[in-house]
Design brief:
8 strands; 9 helices; elongated; alpha+beta
């Protein structure tokens, strides 16, 4: 069957352990040469296989790696990330969370809170967040594919407070600023008196499909504090990415 042969080729590339040429794949799979070459072209056009270097050698594509990563459960991702997130929550005395890309939105999937019962904090809750008005969403959207980012910019933007960014021009400028400084902010955009900061989690070959963030009262989350926290969240995001990758989740 057509699908069987596509899967056979993908499995052959995956187990090769190095980039492989079309002729090598044809010998490995036994698929007739014209058919094998046609299927390789089809897989490459759909980014299930990539050609990272000259010489027409194939490796597993970024799109396939991304699909495999997004298929991981919330529990699996949360378990891998929670130790680092918990340490940051204790250090700052704020609720710290991890979010993930889900369909055309971003959802908070896990939250760690301060261990000291005398410390007050704001819990963000779980679930989907608006793409234009939450730091965890904007941290992912700013680094997403242009087509996905444009769909957000051209879409309807609900106003939650007087601080919500609802203009295409304004959000486009904010996405640029996020890419320049490495983290996103939400200053009373969803709820008055509540602010948050988030940084994208970059997974090799998959991009920014997760983000880590912290939330708290605006009286604490002033400009200086958000800047310091944002820079630390960038480091946290790097640690979380390394943990996810080292745990063979990708």
């Amino acid at each position: 069957m057509h699908l069987d042969r596509l899967v056979t080729i993908l499995e052959a590339v995956a187990v090769a352990g190095q980039p492989v040429t079309p002729s090598e794949l044809q010998k490995m799979t036994g698929i007739p040469r014209p058919t094998c070459y046609r299927l390789l072209t089809m897989l490459a056009e759909n980014r299930l296989l990539d050609v990272p270097e000259h010489g027409m050698r194939y490796v597993i594509g970024e799109r396939l790696l991304r699909i495999a990563l997004l298929a991981k459960t919330d529990t699996t991702i949360s378990s891998a990330a929670s130790p680092s997130i918990r340490d940051t929550a204790i250090e700052y005395g704020e609720a710290v969370f991890i979010s993930r890309l889900r369909n055309d939105g971003v959802a908070i999937i896990h939250v760690e809170t301060p261990s000291d019962p005398s410390v007050s904090y704001i819990h963000p809750g779980l679930g989907v967040r608006p793409m234009h008005a939450c730091s965890c969403s904007k941290a992912i959207a700013a680094f997403a594919d242009e087509s996905f980012r444009e769909s957000i910019l051209k879409g309807k933007m609900k106003s939650y407070t007087s601080q919500t960014q609802t203009s295409e021009e304004g959000l486009r400028k904010e996405f640029l600023e996020i890419r320049e400084r490495g983290f996103a902010e939400c200053v009373e955009e969803i709820e008055t008196g509540v602010s948050s900061v988030a940084a994208p989690v970059f997974i090799e070959s998959a991009g920014a499909v997760f983000s880590v963030g912290a939330i708290g009262p605006s009286r604490r989350f002033n400009t200086k504090y958000r800047d310091a926290l944002g820079k630390n969240l960038v480091t946290l995001a790097e640690n979380v990415a390394a943990t996810i990758q080292s745990n063979d989740l990708v």
